[in-house]
Amino acid sequence: MSSSAFALADLKRILLEGAGADDGIDLDGDILDLDFESLGYESLALLETGGRIEREYGIALDDDVFTDNRTPRTLIAAVNELLSPAATAA
Fold first, then answer.
1. Whole-structure pTM value
2. Residue 64: strand, helix, or coil
3. Is residue 1 domain-resident?
């Protein structure tokens, strides 16, 4: 379990470990506001990504986390909200 903040580098690593990357997608580019589908990640890949985030960070993600957070920027914010001390104290 990690206690540090969840960052774009963490998300990219987890995406690549779990689902790889499409040849035409450059995850090193400006991807924060692109939706996951346009990055080549569909539901099965995102389920795997969510599971990896949960295991690595010791959190539980809602079933609709990827429906509600369709871009890396919003997903990172949602994960960090769960990692914040206020969220763990509740």
1. 0.86
2. coil
3. no
